[in-house]
Design a protein that fits this description.
Elements lengths: L7 E6 L9 E6 L5 E6 L12 H4 L2 H4 L9 E3 L8 E3 L2 H19 L4 E5 L6 H5 L1 H8 L3 E3 L5 H11 L15 E5 L3 H4 L2 H13 L3 E5 L4 H5 L2 E4 L5 H14 L5 H7 L4 H8 L3 H8 L3 H14 L2 E5 L9 H15 L8 E3 L11 H4 L10 E3 L3 H5 L14 E5 L3 H4 L3 H8 L5 E6 L11 E4 L8 E4 L5 E5 L12 H12 L10 H11 L5 H7 L1 E3 L4 H4 L54 E4 L15 H7 L3 E4 L1 H7 L6 E6 L2 E9 L7 E3 L35 E7 L5
Parallel strand pairs: 6-14, 7-13, 8-9, 8-11, 9-10, 11-12, 14-15, 15-16, 20-24, 21-23
Antiparallel strand pairs: 1-2, 2-3, 4-5, 4-16, 17-18, 18-19, 20-25, 21-24, 22-23, 22-25
The chain binds ligand MGD (2 copies), iron/sulfur cluster and molybdenum atom (MO).
Length: 699
């Protein structure tokens, strides 16, 4: 081979928590250095395009602040005082603490807590193997996907949709409750193709004129938590004007005369009063959908982060169904394909020793759990030991004041395995340095597309960093946890999982880099029937029987309306809390990740609040002035940015900045609530009633 050693592009996969799960092309400059990062052209969903923050990855992987040595706390909790120790001592201390906690309170006192900082199946999900063998408390992962997935599957019966590349063949692309220009840039690639090649209009639905709304041909600006009203009124027009596909409704859905009667009163005028979109805009967009038929609804997570989020997701999903759009190439809906891969996690997660009687604790309620709320602990033992991988709850979890109080407990022993000294790591007793994705092997699947991909190790990690897999296996050994999965390498796990799932082998995947699992048209479009037993789409779902893993009913389930509707459970207009705050994602961060990189920080600058100029005037707030935003859960100070691209009474704080970027050291999540979104739990991050006042300059 005569490839130049100095600069070699190698395939990889972006591991971050993003539906795009891009295939990457990484320039490797020797055994411990990378150069440029590009999107892989050969993988047709990524199609050579990635976001700017990952294109700049060399600044993250080679960041001078990376953790490279195990640390032990040497000052009070949260003081940030640590001393360096060796791996053996760090692991011995962690194992001793876990064993001591277990001896005192039983194994459920240990709570392994993780999330999707890496989406690699081996590195993300191996923590379950340890907890299953040890019967430690499980984590019910509610923080991100629950309301959205539940709302979608309530209708379709399966977490699967029409191939997102088909967007390019659509006559009308609807981007609803997601801001892909920030959060999953590849959606725009395929949507814009439809506009260029077919003249398809792009319709966006959001609560502010974000970058995606600005690029849309039609932007519908709704008030937060009112998408159910908009969707119901669109369906009212479709039925009223003969634009619904009645034959399809009869053959493929549970459409009923009662539903039709229900929609008769959901007029555009009724919806306008709730969602703020003028009735004439509703009329014309409904007509557009009805005329085009071949409409592709790309439904996002954002609008599900409301207390009625599952219901609103389902309501929006009902529109393409009423159109019969699923029958056409380029038509139908997509939210996530996470339910389609069927990769066996039996070995990675140790599912052979899973005991369903061990309690699950709600991820989003970590504040309540750690501060000892009996119901959140399922009336069981307190949590006195934690192992945390791939997540930064001190920053990203709701009810931040409780989270902080919990982590500050002297009787809680916390081990955090991290790449940086995050605000969660700073609260730990032991901090362990973690590898990054190009420093270990892993297997990935695209939630937002159809590919299984291999992310091989490309470079050596700095210092003494170890992968999640190595840490889990080393801890298991010291704790006396036995399972064949602890003796396997990541490559062996990948091979085992692929073979068990009839997805080939590691060797085959290594040759191609990725597999396109694109299902046949009939299946992706539900032509032969939806996922429910009778094959019918549900306009009237049985919310208690949505086929997704769950931990029982949560939130005000009994009050969920029978049919798509506006469900008024969002934080109500309280005269004392007159504004509705959403905490929409920032373009240059990914949750709290990338807040450590200078390239991202330089572009996002500082925490701020978008507010309508007339609202700002009424409060006497000028551009750049500091306002206090508060509710019963807490308060933060944010710099004012006057912005007329939102409705009166709505305010947006983009991005999860570090808590310490805020004047009082508390972040945006002091304002967000952890009450469970019905029917399956989740956090309503964009559903906050708040008060805003000018901060008087202190003398
Ligand atoms: N740059 C960047 N990319 C990211 C992330 C990030 O933080 N930054 N986060 C990653 C993660 S973990 C996830 S889950 C995905 C999420 O990505 P998305 O599916 O895009 O979901 P969100 O980002 O929560 O919100 C998307 C939009 O929904 C809007 N929204 C909020 N409430 C409502 C409502 O009631 N109705 C309507 N119609 N719109 C509403 C918000 O204003 C926002 O513009 O993105 C991933 N990608
Ligand atoms: N206000 C508000 N809060 C939100 C949201 C919002 O929209 N608004 N969005 C919510 C959503 S959708 C989500 S998904 C959550 C996400 O919240 P988190 O899961 O906490 O996501 P990140 O903040 O990206 O933190 C991931 C951490 O994992 C670390 N990491 C990455 N790879 C590895 C690895 O291989 N090994 C180890 N040991 N560590 C690794 C990174 O350094 C990073 O610190 O936040 C939620 N919080
Ligand atoms: S768009 Fe998402 S998956 Fe693609 S590189 Fe950026 S963060 Fe990673
Ligand atoms: Mo998420």
């Amino acid at each position: 081979m005569n490839a130049p050693v100095a600069s070699l592009f190698r395939p990889s996969v972006c591991p971050h928590d993003c539906p795009s799960a891009c295939s990457l092309d990484v320039e490797v400059l020797g055994n411990n250095r990378i150069g440029r990062v590009r999107g892989l052209a050969a993988q047709s969903y990524t199609a050579g395009v990635i976001c700017a923050k990952v294109a700049r990855y060399s600044e993250r992987i080679h960041h001078p602040d990376r953790l490279t040595k195990p640390l032990m706390r040497s000052g009070p909790k949260g003081s940030g005082q640590f001393c360096e120790i060796g791996w053996d001592e760090a692991l011995d201390r962690a194992a001793e603490a876990f064993l001591a906690a277990e001896a005192k309170h039983g194994p459920e006192t240990v709570w392994p807590y993780y999330y999707a900082g890496t989406m690699g199946l081996v590195m993300r999900d191996g923590i379950h193997r340890l907890r299953h063998v040890k019967r430690y408390s499980g984590m019910y992962d509610t923080i991100c996907t629950n309301p959205a997935w539940t709302g979608f599957v309530a209708g379709t019966g399966r977490l699967a949709g029409v191939d997102p590349r088909e967007m390019a063949k659509s006559d009308c692309v609807v981007i609803w409750g997601t801001n892909p220009v920030h959060t999953q840039v590849n959606v725009m690639t395929h949507a814009i193709r439809a506009r260029k090649e077919r003249g398809a209009p792009i319709v966006a639905v959001d609560i502010y004129m974000n970058e995606t709304m600005k690029q849309a041909d039609i932007a519908l600006l709704v008030k937060p938590g009112t998408d159910g009203a908009l969707a119901s009124s669109i369906m009212h027009v479709l039925l009223r004007d003969g634009l619904a596909d009645r034959a399809y409704l009869g053959s493929h859905t549970d459409f009923s005369p009662e539903f039709e009667v229900h929609l008769e009163s959901r007029t555009p005028a009724w919806a306008e009063a709730i969602c703020g979109v003028p009735a004439h805009e509703i009329e014309s967009v409904a007509r557009l959908f009805g005329e085009k038929k071949r409409c592709y609804f790309r439904l996002g997570y954002g609008f599900s982060r409301q207390r009625n989020g599952a219901v609103n997701m389902h309501a929006a999903l009902c529109i393409p169904t009423m159109l019969g759009a699923w029958q056409h190439e380029g038509g139908g809906a997509f939210h996530s394909n996470s339910g389609t891969y069927g990769i066996s996690k039996r070995m990675i997660e140790g599912l052979d020793v899973f005991d369903p009687s061990v309690r699950l604790l709600d991820q989003s309620r970590i504040g309540a759990v750690l501060t000892g709320e009996a119901a959140s602990l399922k009336n069981g033992p307190p949590v006195t030991a934690m192992l945390i991988q791939n997540t930064n709850p001190m920053n990203v979890a709701p009810e931040q004041r409780k989270v902080r109080a919990g982590f500050a407990r002297e009787d809680l022993f916390t081990v955090v395995h991290e790449q940086f000294m995050t605000e969660t790591a700073a609260m730990a007793d032991i901090v362990l340095p973690a590898t990054m994705f190009m420093e270990h092997d892993d297997l990935y699947q695209g939630g937002g597309h159809t590919h299984i991909m291999l992310g091989p190790k490309l470079v050596e990690p700095p210092g003494a960093c170890r992968s999640n897999h190595e840490v889990i296996c080393a801890l298991a050994k010291r704790i006396g946890a036995e399972h064949p999965g602890f003796a396997m390498s990541p490559r062996e796990h990948i091979d085992w999982a692929l073979r068990q799932s009839s997805r080939g082998s590691l060797e085959e995947l290594e040759k191609q880099g990725f597999i396109d699992t694109d299902p046949p048209f009939e299946r992706a479009h539900y032509i032969t029937g939806f996922g429910h037993r009778d094959g019918k789409f549900r306009f009237a779902p049985d919310w208690l029987k949505v086929p997704l893993k769950n931990d029982g009913p949560m939130g005000p389930v009994a009050a969920i309306p029978r049919f798509p509707d506006h469900w008024a459970v969002i934080e109500a207009d309280d005269p004392a809390l007159p504004f509705r705050l959403a905490t929409s994602p920032a373009r240059q961060f990914l949750n709290s990740t990338f807040t450590e990189t200078p390239g991202s920080m330089a572009r996002e600058i500082a925490p701020s609040l978008l507010i309508h100029p007339e609202d700002a005037d009424a409060l006497g707030l000028t551009e750049g002035e500091v306002a206090e935003v508060s509710n019963a859960r807490g308060s933060v100070e944010l710099a004012i940015r006057r912005f007329d691209g939102l409705r009166h009474g709505v305010v947006i704080a983009e991005g999860i900045f570090p808590n310490k970027s805020h004047r009082r050291g508390e972040g945006i999540n002091v304002l967000t609530g952890a009450d469970q979104v019905a029917p399956r739990g989740g956090a309503a991050f964009h559903d906050n009633a708040v008060a805003i006042r000018k901060v008087q300059a202190s003398g």
